[in-house]
Amino acid sequence: MKREDLKAFLEEYFTEPGTELEACTPGDWRSEPPNLMRIVDPALKNWALQLNAIWMNLCRKVKDVVNGDRHSLIYLPNEFIVPGGRFREFYYWDAYWIVKGLIVSGMLDTAKGMIRNFQSLVDRFGFVPNGGRVYYLQRSQPPLLTPTVYEYFEQTKDVDFLKSILPTLMKEFEFWSNKRSVNVTGQDGQVYKVYQYRPDTNVPRPESFREDVTNAMKLPSSARAKFYQDIAAAAESGWDFSTRWLSDKKSLVKIETTNIAPIDLNAFMCWNMDILGYLFRSVGNIAKSKKFRYLREDFRYAMQYVFYNESEGAWFDYSIPKRSHNIEFYPSSAIPLFTGCYQPLNLAKSHAIVRFMNISRAFEFPGGVPSSLIVGSEQQWDFPNGWSPLNHMIIEGLRKSDSAQMQEEAFRLAQKWVQGNYAVFKKTGHMWEKYDVNGTVPQPGAGGEYVVQDGYGWTNGVVLSLLTTYYNRLRVSPLANEASTPSLRRAFESYELSTSSVASLSLLAATLNLILVFLPHFDFCVV
């Protein structure tokens, strides 16, 4: 087929990306939310108000014409905030930090609407899909719906709302418990039920069909089904992709996600148990509250005897076939601090993980904590990229400690992260999904299957949360407040060039991927 014939075919039978969605104006948006007006530093306060205004640009609503027979978009009843850039629809784990930002901005109705959207998804599908397209229905993302409900409930104390959504939270918990669990033997010889990312698929990801098939062709045909499942499992983890999942720490064809019980997923599940116990107690259901309290107490032994490494003083991913830990540094090792899930709950373990991070030199980078310390990786969830959710969870885990030293370390990291984000925003006018934390001149991150995206939902939510947590301490440094630098301008000019040159190719490839995947299953939809 000639290029011009293919183009004509696409123009006749397909609409432009994103046309199923319409922009919206949240009814609860305010230009000067009280939480943000408390920020002491004038420059940071002004920045916070600018970030607050970005919610207006990221608000979307699914058009009423959308239905499952004609569109790949999953219908949602309420308005929601999208991440931004190429991520035009909802994405699951992004929403936790987006909702935290909305709460800071006083947008409780918008936050509630997003939670109700997720409730509708669990009620329809039994879980929250990775994102808002039908081709994501084979996988989820880190289970953060229950923590999101907790954040909303703590602000509103809306017991009627809580009663209405608890059955949904139970349903999602059962999905992870039944579909994503595995039994392993701990260091004490006992068998423990732990969790892993393990979507039920053995075909290429529809949204990345070309990339997956290209990589799979490097493997024997007998290994390709497992490769496709491992790739999808890494996407389900949210860390797509990282050397965490690669047996040789280099090549995607060496991916082995389903051989791993990830420490962060298990910390999240432990957190779900804790929160569900609290939420059931809040509505007076003492029996179920006790059930989840006992589940959590038992599961903390799994955290100790499966994931904790005494000699390193930290929690790690667990290789199921090798019965060993991956002791490379990844921020995921600190997630049990954030979720409070370790046994026994004492200062010794929290100090040990900080020592491990200090020995690893994870705190020494100018812009924050990188996603790994493995240099030379081509994956975006590796050095030198730092990501908002990872830095936020480390900060919060340290901040909630009883140790003044750890609380001060949390503030120092918050100051780094905020100043780096502020400097890049001042130079570009944008927030980004990830940042290069290594250079003295901060800039957006790079690597992975696509160019760095702006917007950006969870980045905005994290910064707004930190600005209000440390409203009277955070300050803008002279370096971060400079108007511009030649080297930084050149860096961003190259980003703009690479983004524009790749965009048209990415759109064409994505459309062809979808045609190839869905052609055998669907009739064409004439628009």
Automatic annotation (TrEMBL):
Record's catalysed reaction(s): alpha,alpha-trehalose + H2O = alpha-D-glucose + beta-D-glucose
EC number in record: 3.2.1.28
Single annotated GO MF: alpha,alpha-trehalase activity
Matching Pfam families: Trehalase (PF01204)
Top enzyme category: hydrolase
One GO process term, biological-process aspect: trehalose catabolic process
Keywords tagged on the record: Glycosidase, Hydrolase
Family: Belongs to the glycosyl hydrolase 37 family.
Protein name: Trehalase
Lineage start: Eukaryota, Metazoa, Ecdysozoa, Nematoda, Chromadorea
